[in-house]
Amino acid sequence: MEQERVELAYAPTAEDFREAFAAQARHTTAGRLVRVLVWVPAVIAALGGVLKAADGEAGVPDALTAAALVALALLAPRYQVFSAQRRAARRGGEYRAVVDATGVSVTDARGTRVLPWTRVPRSLETERLFVVLNSSGNCLLTLPKRGTSSPDALRALIARHTTPVVRAAGGAACDAADQAAHSK
Predict the structure, then answer these.
(1) How far from the centroid of its chain's Cα atoms is residue 172's Cα?
(2) From the CA atom positions of the chain, what is the Rg in Å?
(3) Which residues are within 8 A (CB) of 78 and not within 5 positions of it... i.e. 6 or more apart?
(4) What global pTM score does this model have?
């Protein structure tokens, strides 16, 4: 018989957020767009600086602009994780989540948030997490597998109520594609 309710208890970690944001960046349009919006200006500034240097026209402002944009591109993911972890810490240490036919509810020291499946119709799975996403692919909630004694039941429940995020090319669910890549 399929389980209709799975309970989790966990404290979110920086590694949870790092893994969730990395998976989102690899497997959703929103995540890839953010990556492009951060890296394209950095690459253009660096190439422009190299071309100006080759002509002998590069100056300190050019180098500083390129360095700042490259630093921003490198540090943005770390800041995203830091910011998410800080928000989670402000909400309280231990989280309790209930996943059932109506959606996901998460209780922490500040109260309970309820997300019906209509608000989080997409999901992806990583090695240690389930991530439920809104329709645009923004990461809304991470559910660590360590938080439940029944990750298979959680997987089945999430699969019944969400659509797995698929890769644009290839069409395989990101979890299956990642597992295949790591098993080789």
Answers:
(1) 18
(2) 20
(3) none
(4) 0.70
